[in-house]
Fold this protein.
Amino acid sequence: SINAEYMGLFEPFIMNTLGVLKKFFGDSSEEVRIHALRTTKFAMQNLSGYGVRQVLPLLLEGINDKVWRAKVANIWALGNMAYCAPKQLSVCLPQIVSKLTETLSDTHPKVKESANESLNLIGSTIKNPEIAETIEILIKALSDPFEQNKRGLEVLLNIKFVHYIDTPSLSLIVPIIEYGLSSRESILKQNAAQVVGTVSHLIKDPRALLPYLDGLLHSLKIAICDNISEVRSIASKALGALAKKLGMEFCDRILLDIRQILEDQKSTSVERAGAAQAFSEVICNYGKEFLDNIVPKILALTRDSRPHIRESFIGVFVFLPAILNESFDPYIKGVLDHVIESLADDNENIRNLSLRVNKILIQKFGLQRKELLIAPVREGLLSNSWKKRHSSCVLMTEMLDVLVKDAKRNKEPVRPIFVEHSDVLALFHILKYDVSEHIRLQANITWKMFVENTPKELKRLIPHLMNVLVEIITQEGDLGDIAKICITAFVPKYADQILKEILGHLIKLKEQYEDNSNMLNGICLTLNEMARSLPHYQVTELSLIHISEPTRLLSISYAVFCLKKK
């Protein structure tokens, strides 16, 4: 009566009053218990936010009472807090549902029954009609998660939502989600992560998510590190949807959680991959200005001295192109400039990631940004690092394949592609004689993919072949050796068809670079290797080239000596 008469004025005394009423929750007299519970229910309906915060700990503590009747009464009182005003409800429901869910496993049947009734009481306040129709299934999922969680998640996934999700609905859905995300079954993790994405879109007020944020972020953080790639992918997208709903206010907090995984030296490659995808999904939600600011910082980290940092942040560019699509175009050049050198990294994981990033760029932007993408890969074909040469072989093969498939799709001839990229085909032929077996194998595969008639194609490619061979034969290390092996292998084999063309082009080069001692040196070294490998009757044709005395170097003299000796 006092509470009804004075409403809010009585609230400062509610703690003491409730403390007294609680003593009667377990009274042997049913009439006393009913009056105590009725008074408690009435008080609950008029509590302010402050009152809820004061009363809730007392009721939650009461659930641990050893007397089962008192425990049941406290559970009943918690259930009746569902009748609080919506603002107060959002404060108390997360803790209430969590505690009630725990008591569902109590050994006393009356306690379990009371907890189930209280959850139904909370369910009765749900205003979302789609959730209200499935309340029985959701409570079963809460009461028996081991058997019913999968069913609960499936129901949530299959609902065609028309209305926003309200606070009571959220209080029942989130525990089901968290159980699914912590499950060992990958299908439950995937379904739970999908529900997170759905719920994030259907919350009208982002603040309704705040009481659950710690739990959801913790669960998703574990899920993005899962061994199953599908789980990592869906969880990352769910985290992105959650970040989008929460807005920039929580950006730093979410990214900090993900960066802890990315920057932890103990993280595995799988965990870094999941965190990289989640990082990508999150940062794409904040607009172009945000991306323009953060992408250069990520690129700088791809050149960090620590291998695990390089691996983590190169991994981000595995996912960004697919998320941003055409909007990624402004960042292509910067990514190429930073990532292409990692093709020669000593760390195999970093090399593979760099290769993957470049493949993705070629597959996604190869037609629109052909020249931009081809240039660094063409340069990589003549790298001093065999690792980079091999990766460049793979990437250039991918690029040619993209161009050929596009031409066939549009019913256009493919021959112009190889004419346009004759220099690339010439490089592939040279790399067929690489000192690395891996590169020789890849170059041979590529050559057979795109060249039908080798003698005919070589005759056409003579200018490109000889330009490269003359240039690299003077270099120390692998490239010089490759040039020599190539000359001694293919020139004798195809001499009858192409020797005159080779000599003709070398004469042109000699005339063109009369004052360039390095190129003249290359010409003579080329002649020297040819003289070593050709039969005697063909060596005489080499005398067509005359090197003038003022430009004669040691290697030139040696080439002339070899010619005379032959």
Q: What stands out?
A: Confidence is low (pLDDT under 50) at residues 1-9, 546-566. The chain is about 75% helix and 0% strand.
